[in-house]
Specification:
heterodimer, A: about 80% helix, globular, B: mainly alpha, Four Helix Bundle (Hemerythrin (Met), subunit A)
């Protein structure tokens, strides 16, 4: 499928740029780690950190998502790269899926780092039975976040004064992911006595969200990047 | 340098404002209905068995929230009409924007009256139950919509961006309404539009509530008419300013 091939090429381009510039590795991942530290400073009471660890992991993910999205579209701003892609007649759906995949890959690495940090710093522990739920949650939440981020990144990319709008737009929209992913991870880790079975309905919510935005975002992305700058 | 009189005459009404015959009649009807709402809400309807007189906030709180939902739905419908029709008429975009602005105002009223009512009946201004949380989310989302409208660019760019956002966030409305059913919570079960269709209020209270709904809906229509006309005038003004700037630049080029 031509579209799928183009999407892979776009994703490869984004990841290659990251590999050469190392902006995410050098700036965003440390930012996420610092955020986890800040949470610990703010919530330093007995047992609180362990109980809220899942929520904090996803909050740190969301804040880092904002930075990642801005980076993803900043690389397109140089030399008008995104406009060049459009003018060359590249299918915008393919561009959307390609950028989403690259963003998802970066997000996945980030989330794994955050889960490890939660285990090390907050005293959370991952029982063997919860690993499957945890993995599925990470995959689906990442997909949903990447799709939303790419869509709104396309909307707010461009002039200064538009990037600052990104947090205000994205955070309310990804609130379902925050809620669903937090509850699912709580079930996976057994936080506060949450049972494993309670997590799977939330995974369903994450799946619906990812599909809805994967499709809707692809359709909306083309018209949004068509405008000048 | 001659003054550039190249812009076309504006085609809105020759009157100084955005009022027309229809809005005058509508305004009078609105004032009358609001008067009736006050009369029914404060005087004729009975006090509640449990809540006493504090139930009277409901006659403002519930109509404002339904009107806000109506406003946001109109925004979504107009956004769809702008995006998916061949003509891409800016009139739809303006109604969408006006409706969203007024929806945000009504939603803010809902939240404030809700907080006051909550303080009286539950003892707290706010609770993080499902309905309140999703309502706050809805409110913030539409503030984001208004921010997108302010991003600048051509009228069509504004229309396209806000249409996409408007269609996405309208989906939060069913989320708010069913959130009470999905998660048992502090907020009372939907009394009127219960998911089973039963109606749960005493006769006169229900009537007073519908008087309130009619009054606020008329107010909403009146406000949307005026606001979208004002927007049309703002857009025209901007276009005129652009035409004048272009003409001035061209005049400079000719002279230099």
């Amino acid at each position: 499928m031509r579209r799928w091939r183009i999407a892979r090429l776009v994703a490869g381009k984004d990841l290659r740029i990251e590999r050469r510039s190392r902006v995410v590795v050098n700036q965003v991942l440390p930012f996420a780690a610092v955020t986890m530290l800040m949470f610990a400073f703010a919530l330093d009471a007995t047992n609180v950190l362990e109980r809220v660890a899942p929520g904090l992991v996803w909050l740190a993910t969301l804040f880092s998502l904002l930075v990642l999205v801005q980076r993803a579209f900043a690389i397109e701003a140089d030399d008008g790269a995104l406009d060049a892609l459009r003018v060359a007649g590249v299918d915008p759906v393919a561009i959307y899926w390609g950028k989403s995949m690259a963003l998802a890959a970066q997000l996945a690495v980030l989330e794994l780092l955050l889960v490890v940090a939660a285990v090390l710093l907050y005293g959370a522990d991952v029982p063997a039975g919860g690993l499957a739920l945890l993995a599925v949650t990470l995959v689906l939440a990442t997909a949903g976040l990447a799709c939303v981020g790419t869509l709104y990144g396309g909307l707010t990319a461009g002039f200064t004064g538009r990037e600052t709008l990104l947090p205000l737009l994205v955070l309310p929209v990804v609130a379902p992911v925050l809620i669903g992913a937090t509850r699912a991870v709580e079930s996976a880790l057994g936080t506060d006595g949450a049972a494993l079975s309670e997590g799977w309905p939330w995974v369903g919510l994450l799946a619906v969200f990812a599909v809805a935005f994967g499709v809707g975002g692809a359709l909306a992305f083309g018209p949004l990047i068509e405008e000048a700058t | 340098m001659t003054s550039p009189a190249l812009a076309p005459e504006p085609t809105v009404s020759r009157s100084a404002g955005t009022g027309t015959h229809v809005t005058r009649l509508l305004g009078i009807a609105t004032i009358v209905m609001i008067g009736w709402t006050a009369a029914f809400g404060l005087l004729f309807s009975p006090a509640d068995r449990n809540q006493g007189d504090s139930v009277r906030i409901m006659y403002v709180h519930v109509p404002t929230v339904w009107t806000a939902y109506l406003a946001f739905t109109v925004t979504a419908l107009c956004s769809a009409s702008y995006l998916f029709r061949k003509k891409h008429s800016l009139g739809f975009d303006r109604v969408a924007g006006a409706s969203a602005e007024i929806g945000v105002v009504f939603m803010a009223l809902t939240l404030v009256t809700g907080m006051l009512w909550g303080r009286l009946t539950w003892g707290v201004y706010w609770e993080w139950d499902a309905r309140l949380t999703t309502t706050a989310l809805l409110f913030v989302s539409y503030i984001g919509y208004l921010a997108v409208r302010g991003l600048g660019g051509t009228h069509h760019q504004r229309a396209k961006r806000s249409a996409v956002v408007g269609l996405l966030i309208v989906l939060e409305i069913p989320l708010v309404h069913w959130s009470v059913k999905l998660w048992r919570s502090l907020h009372q079960e939907a009394s009127v539009l219960d998911t089973d269709g039963d109606i749960d209020l005493d006769g006169l209270m229900l009537f007073s509530l519908f008087v309130g709904v009619v009054a606020f809906t008329l107010l909403y229509v009146w406000l949307v008419l005026h606001r979208s006309r004002t927007m049309a005038m703002e857009d025209l003004l901007e276009d005129q300013g652009l035409d004048e700037a272009l003409a001035a630049r061209r005049a400079e080029a000719v002279m230099s």
